[in-house]
Amino acid sequence: MAVDKTIVAKIARLARINVPDERLEPLAAELNGILNWIAELDELKTDHVAPLASVTDHALPMRDDVVTDGNCLDDILSNVPESASGFFVVPKVVE
Amino acid sequence: MSNLVSGRTGDWEVVIGLEVHAQVTSKAKLFSGASASFGAAPNENVSLVDAAMPGMLPVINRECVYQAIRTGLGLKAKINLKSVFDRKNYFYADLPQGYQISQFKDPVVGEGVLRIVLADGSTRDIGIERLHLEQDAGKSMHDQHPSKSYIDLNRTGIALMEIVSRPDMRSSAEAASYVRKLRSILRYLETCDGNMEEGSLRADVNVSVRRPGEPLGTRTETKNLNSLRFIQLAIDHEVVRQIEVLEDGGEIDQETRLFDISTGATRTMRSKEDAHDYRYFPDPDLLPMVVTQDEVDELASCLPELPDDIRDRLIGNYGLSAYDASVITEERETALYYEAASNNADRKLVANWMTVELFGALNKSGQSLTDCLVSPKMLSALVGLISDGTISGRIAKDVFCEMFETGKDAATVVEEKGLKQVSDSDEIEVLIDEVLAANQDKVLEYRSGKDKLFGFFVGQVMKASRGQANPGMVNETLRIKLDVSS
Residue B391 carries which DSSP code? Predict the structure, then answer.
């Protein structure tokens, strides 16, 4: 699996990470190293094995439908750079 | 029935598939214990889990899972005993996690079917591809400040069912029928309140056009339509736009579009180059979800009777018309009202009175059935008075109006206004004699062959009785008096 400069730039953009141009090439090399290492797993035959979503044998624990949380506006807003009348305030985002 | 749309260069077939987002009826959110109620103060119903504070872990609400399964059963769909939650990754200010927890590869509900009734009364089955559970996003307000957006996370994390249809619809009317029917089923099941104005039910429409018999064309997706009318308008606009582009030799871009309520047109929301790459992967915070067949069977055994079954019963057992049966079963409240009102009365007559007089009066006054003063029992009594000949159908309409206005029962109104039907043969005979005496010339004309005047005499007698004479008896007695004594 080969990752090139363009793919690194795309992944960085999707993850909203600012990667300067001169870092794209070295990052591609690093990622290829990781991917090649993981690719060793391809040697295993998995034709008849279902994809694994979890390594434990437990099923998902569930909660009852009861309101037990919320009403903690001060906690929720305690780290925000800006708020007004209980709202988070962010730079305008309109698609 | 042909649904083809003609363009300048020939006919086109429209292909529509819908993704409906239905908010699950539950007290708490899908993965947190915060309230899922509507209308709280900004960010009041938000827990640290919903705000995606570091270290918070999601725990699923069992009731939300059961609601999804109930809905699946109502859509006659396959229930998957094992399903998986995935992360759908994208950045937006009202999505604090940076991903939506959803189900991608293994949804909780698989293929099902939904029957819609077309304009001509025939029915058609629309395929359901899947139903999965996912989190709702928060709400952004862009009109509070010139350069800022205000974010309210109350809706963040509330459970949604995304119900995906097959591309089986061929017109905007069919799409509207589909949504109306789906909403009805959800409301019968009480798994979603179906309130489109509050956003509990919204649809994304996928539309493409093709020449009849050809492979599917490229589709566009118009997002977030929250009324039946907007769904129809958006589809109709998109169909015209796509046909125009294709007939001008252009190509349709596979893209996401927005419907502008003010212009009734759709416009590009995201272009293809900017298309989202969601990078789905199984959420490592959540184990695969397992439900047992016993749980599913238990849920199935507690389902209410659904509209299709009631409709079939009303037609089959009570002899109602397909139209009346459809109208009565569309809303659960209406069906329950009908059952209560017709239990001890003429079933067909009650159906008539509901679909014509009751619904007419409700429409006119803007009231809903729940705040209507005429209870099922009162309507039943009114119909009883018609059936036993106490009042005529025409008088009953006046009685009904009075009942609707004042909440008095039928017997009281009839008593107070002296509206009881005159079925006394002596009284009717006196009335007829008076009318005949006052219209000697017409009597002669009638007897010399002007048959049409019969209706005139009936009208005069009914008028003289202020509408209260039993019309059957008036007819009969008039016939005897006019014909026999000639």
Answer: S
B436 in contact with A, Cβ within 8 Å: no
Rounded (5°) CA angle B322-B193-B265 = 80
User: How many Å apart are CA B24 and CA B369, to the nearest integer?
Assistant: 24
Number of domains in chain B: 3
A93 vs B61, B62, B149: nearest CB = B149
B234 and B87 fall within a common domain = yes
Of A62, A76, A82, the CB nearest to B65: A62
Residue B435: CB atoms within 10 Å = 24
| CB of B103 closer than 8 Å to CB of B58 | no
Give this complex's ipTM: 0.87
Which parts of B228-331 fold into alpha helices (H)?
Answer: 228-247, 293-301, 307-318, 322-329
The answer to whether residues B404 and B445 belong to one domain is: no
Final residue of a domain: which of B254, B271, B298? B298
Residue B59 has pLDDT above 60, yes or no: yes
Three-class secondary structure of residue B277 per DSSP: coil
Instruction: Give the three-class secondary structure for B239.
Output: helix
Instruction: Quote the CA–CA distance of B107 and B110 in Å, as a whole number.
Output: 7
Indicate the burial class of B267 (C-beta count within 10 angstroms; 0-12, 13-18, 19 or more): exposed
d(CA B347, CA B318) in angstroms, rounded, equals 6
Name the residue facing A60 among B45, B140, B289 (closest C-beta): B289
CA distance B482 to B4: 59
Domain edge (last residue) among B268, B298, B328: B298
Residue B388: is its pLDDT beyond 90? no
The candidate with the shortest Cα–Cα distance to B405, out of B462, B447, B364, is B364
Q: Are B82 and B289 in contact (CB under 8 A)?
A: yes
Q: Where are the alpha helices (DSSP H) in B190-268?
A: 228-247
Domain boundaries, chain A: 5-43
Residues B437 and B412 placed together within one structural domain of the fold: no
pLDDT tens profile A40-94: 998 998 888 887 767 777 889 999 999 999 999 999 999 999 999 999 999 987 7
Q: Kindly report the CATH number assigned to the domain that includes residue B456.
A: 1.10.10.410
Instruction: At B27, give phi and psi (nearest 5°).
Output: -80, -45
Half-sphere exposure of B416 (CA within 13 A, CB side): 11
* CB proximity B68 to A under 8 Å: no
Does A14 contact B289 at a Cβ distance shorter than 8 Å?
no
Domain that holds residue B345: 305-417
What is d(CA A21, CA A14) in angstroms, rounded to the nearest whole number? 16
Label residue B391 by pLDDT band (50, 70, 90): confident
